[in-house]
Fold this protein.
Amino acid sequence: MTPAPDIRPDPVPLREAFWYWLKLGCISFGGPAGQIALMHQELVERRRWISERRFLHALNYCMLLPGPEATQLAIYIGWLMHRTRGGIMAGALFLLPSLLLLILLSWLYMAYGRLPAVAAVLYGIKPAVVAIVLAAAWRIGRRTLRNGALAAVAAAAFAAIAALGVPFPLVVLGAAALGVLGGRLWPHLFALGGARPGTAAGYGSALIDDDTPTPAHARFSAPRLALVVAAGAALGLGGWLLAALAGGADGTLAAMGWFFTKAAFLTFGGAYAVLPYLYQGAVEHYQWLSAPQMIDGLALGETTPGPLIMVVAFVGFAGAWQHAVPGLPQLAAAGAAGALVATWFTFLPSFVFILAGGPLVESTRDDLRMTAPLTAISAAVVGVVLSLALFFGRQVFLAGGQPDWAALGLAAAACVALLRYQVGSIKLIAACAAAGVVLSYWHG
């Protein structure tokens, strides 16, 4: 039930939050842009659990971090509302439905993916994936690029990655440096977006409003920071030891533990920015799967709720499957183990980043020296996402060395459906899958 706009909502019981985060994990389709929009609509506009300015401040911090920003935002809000257990609960429930679905879809793909009917469906879905990435760039840009200076930051980030091959961490650091400089010289251009204090963007008073004091558990404490970091390190080491015991210290599972830990720490800009790094490592270096399989895995990831970077579960499943002892039960067990290892090491750092760094972020809500770099980084993410669309477009539209005009036409139609008619991602993927079957039949 939506509270009255002039009355601050009552405190939210943990049980009510549990069912909300589980629901979000089951319906959050459309990648990080769609998931963030869902959280904003539900938590800021309808339920008013948190004000828009505090929501955006948390979002900008999550965009600064390596890893999936939508997942980190869920952890942050859950932690702010219900302490450490709330953050862990929000993050886990946001991930669980997509993990279980992707393990099932990965098994079906690895066991039956070479069937012509499955290949035809995937042929239609791949252009839809490119369109979804382009639409995400558009939607993030509309929210983030509020002036010419921020648009220039986004353009520079795109050029740095697509044309010059600059590593993602350097792009993020460069954007942060521009934000520091811009915050000093042109503070009005790099101020945090969203509602002005006291207006709540017309949504009414929020449970955690602009003027709500920082709760006791969200205040910085050096001993608590050390405890969270130590606990995260222990969980990471314990997970790696289990992987090494299951497959050997030089085995695939142990290698995945190390690789996905690096992916979690070394890639910035959210889920879309992580994917090129995953491609370089999983396809080119370790050769756990092929380039077409990587694109197919992303297509499967787009059909499931939850974070897009959950495609790591497919990568882990496929890599462990292809290095396991033949036999369907053994392959399925190995694949599931690979998916769990990839998921554990990819998302564990996100929990640590939020639970350890959240108190520091809460102390900088009104500090332009902190918000200006975060605003610039948010703008750079738009360029990163566009570079990813270019990367996938080359894979899909030039797969055979010649332009695939049917795939290009399908992607163009998908862009129109997404941006002009606001078609949902699941409906779009279903329609493109059907078109893929028709086109394959026509050409076959």
